[in-house]
What does this fold into?
Amino acid sequence: MKNPGPAISLSDVHLRLASAAGPVNILNGITLAVPNGQTVALTGPSGSGKSSLLMVATGLERPSSGRIEVAGTDITGMSEDAAARFRRGRVGIVFQSFHLIPTMTALENVAVPMELSGAPDAWDRAEAELKSVGLEKRGHHYPGQLSGGEQQRVALARAMAPRPDVLFADEPTGNLDSTNGAAVAELLFALNAERGATLFLVTHEESLARRCQRIVRLQSGKIVGED
It folds into this structure.
């Protein structure tokens, strides 16, 4: 049963990172609530903090201060291991650069994470998920034998296979040409609508952002507006 509260809740989140020139403020007091099932796009110029906000919202980066809840769980102070355990089956992430394991086939890239988290039907589910993204005949190919569009579809299958409550996507079409990018975007929204997950999409593409129910605009680490 899904948490009745917001799928994502950030309260006065700050992120400050060290640099050779001294501390750099990346996020400056982000407060944001995303209801269950909503599709929201985070947009803004390069360097505005979009990917950093996604990183802290997924527990891949710990904020300097503030509070973060995802799917009803406070992840603010979790260790890397605890955050990784939390994400299994609850949170899916699709990155711009695919992040597939090159020594594993497409099928293994989808199935092994589920198997490690204890899913008894991991391989059957992986096969079904590859079919849902049109790659049922490519399961035994390695990432190096797949096109960029196919690799991103494998990454999408991997993220969606555990039926996550929240799907995060960081510039999912950023490394693809216009044709493959459009195909991946169609799959992303179709699968998300079918499964009912909350979608948190980081993108610089206005056309992609407009497909979401809500657009949050970021600049200099602050929310400066919403559509």
Notes: Residues 178-195 form the longest helix (18 residues). The beta strands are 8-17, 24-34, 39-43, 65-70, 73-74, 91-94, 166-170, 198-202, 214-219, 222-226. Helices lie at 50-57, 80-87, 106-116, 122-132, 148-160, 178-195, 206-209. The mean pLDDT is 93.
